[in-house]
Amino acid sequence: MKRGAALLPGLLCLLVLLVAVSARASPVETGVGLLQAKGCLSCHTLDGSASAGPTLNGVVEAKGAEYVRRAILVPNADIAEGYSAGMMPAVPVSEAELEALVLALAVPTSGAEPAEGGSILAVAVCGFLFVFLHLFLSSGWVRPRLVSALGETRFQWLYTTQAIVMLSLTWYAWDLAPFVELWRPAPWTRWVPNIGMPFVCILIWAGYTTESPTIAGKEEALSNERVATGVLRITRHPANMGFILWGLLHLFANGDLATVLLILSFVGLGVLGTWHIERRRLARHGNAWLAYAKETSVVPFAAILRGDQHLAVGEMGWKPIAGGLALWLVLLLTHHHEWFAGKSPMPFF
Fold first, then answer.
1. What is the DSSP string of 31-65?
2. Do the Cβ atoms of 87 and 187 come closer than 8 Å?
3. Tens digit of each residue's pLDDT (9 = 90 or more) over 46-76
4. What is the pLDDT of residues 301-319, one digit of tens each?
5. pLDDT tens, position by position, 97-151
6. Distance CA 88, CA 67 (A)
7. What gap in Å lies between CA 264 and CA 247, rounded to an integer?
8. Where does the pLDDT of residue 3 fall: very low under 50, low under 70, confident under 90, or very high at 90 and above?
9. Among 67, 68, 70, which residue's Cα sits nearest to residue 102?
10. 211 contact partners, CB below 8 Å, separation of at least 6
C-alpha cells in the first residue's frame, strides 16, 4: 500500500504529461492563434472583406508561401496595390511561428470567421447609453432618490454595476462592428499614444487614489486648509482628464468609424462628466467651490501656467506614480492590450 502511495505522484505527473501532449495544438491551430496574438487580424481579414490592410483570404494560393514569408519578415519588400510603404510594422516571429502562420493561411477554413450581427449603430447606441446612464444616475434629481431608497452603499454598487455592464456591451458592439475606414493613419501615429500613455495612466491612478472634492462622497475635502495638493495642482479632475487624453491620443492611430465612436464615448463621458461635477459642486458649495476652482484648473497644467499653482511631484507620493507606471507597463509589455484591443500597442510590432 505504501509503495502504491509512493507511485501515485509519478502516475499523476505521467497522466498530466499525456493529456498535455494529446491536447497540444497542431501547427495550423498554432498559426490561427498567432494571427490574433501578433495583431494580424486588427488590420487584415480572413474572409475577403475590407479592413486597414489587404485581406489574407487565399493569399498563399494566390501569391505563394514564399511571398507570405517575405511579407511577414520584410513588410516593405512587396507593397500591395492601394497601400503605401511603412503601413505594416515588422512582426518578430521565430522560424516555427513563421511556418505556423503560413500553414494557417494556406488552409481556406483556418481562422475564425468575422462575427455576424455587428453594426456601427450598435456601437453608437451602446456608447450613448454608457455616457447617458452615468450622468442620469448621478444627476441631482435621480441620485438623492435612489440613495434614499437603496442607501449609499447599494447605490454605489448599482452605479458601478451599470458602468461595467454598459462598458462591456459597448466594447462587445465595437468588437462585432464592421470595418468602415474614415482615414488611414500614418505609421508614425502609433507613437503618439505610447508617448502620452505614461502620463495618462498616472492621472487615472492618482484620480482614484487622491482625496479630492470632485470624487463622490469626498466633498468634505473642500473644508481642508490645503485642498489643492499633489496631482490636484495639475488638474482638479485627474481621472476624467486621463480618460479624455486617452481617447484623444488614440484617435491619432485609429481611423475606422467603430473605433472612433468607441473613443468618443470615453471622451464624451470625460467632458460631460467634468461639466456635470462642476455644476453640482457649485450649486451645493457656492463660494467654497468658486475659491477652489479659482486656484486650480480643469485643463491639465493650466493653473500652473497662469501662476496660480506650482508643480509639486513630491506631494503626490510614490504610490500614484508607481501605480500608474505599473498599469502602463502591464498594458505595454503583456498581451492584455492585444486581448481587448486586437493589436499590440508597440509601434514596431
1. HHHHHHHTTGGGT--SSS---SS---TTHHHHH-H
2. yes
3. 777 767 778 888 888 888 888 888 888 888 7
4. 999 999 999 998 888 888 9
5. 788 888 888 876 544 444 445 789 999 999 999 999 999 998 888 999 999 999 9
6. 15
7. 7
8. very low
9. 68
10. 218, 221
The CATH H-level (homologous superfamily) assignment of domain 27-106 is Cytochrome c-like domain (1.10.760.10)
Helix axes 287-295, 257-285, angle to 10 degrees: 130
DSSP string, 249-265: HHHTT--BHHHHHHHHH
- 337-346 pLDDT tens trace: 766 666 667 6
Give Cα 284 distance to the centre of its chain.
Answer: 34
CB contact burial 86-125 (16+ within 10 A = b; e otherwise): ebbbebebeeebbbbbbbbbbeeebbeeeeeebebebbbe
CA 192 to each of CA 235, 260, 283, 340: distance values in angstroms, whole numbers, following the listed order: 22, 16, 38, 19
Nearest to 180 by CA among 247, 260, 258, 81: 258
Contacts (Cβ under 8 Å, ≥6 apart) of 319: 209
Q: Can you give the residue ranges of every domain in the chain?
A: 27-106, 116-178, 181-341
3-state secondary structure of 256: strand
Contact 215, 300 (CB under 8 A): no
pTM tops 0.85, yes or no: no
Q: What is the largest CA-CA distance in the chain?
A: 82
Tell me if 195 sits within 8 A of 286, measured CB to CB.
no
Radius of gyration of the chain (CA): 25
Cell of 227: 485642498
Which three cell numbers mark 14?
505521467
Grid cell digits, residue 137: 444616475
DSSP type of residue 107: S
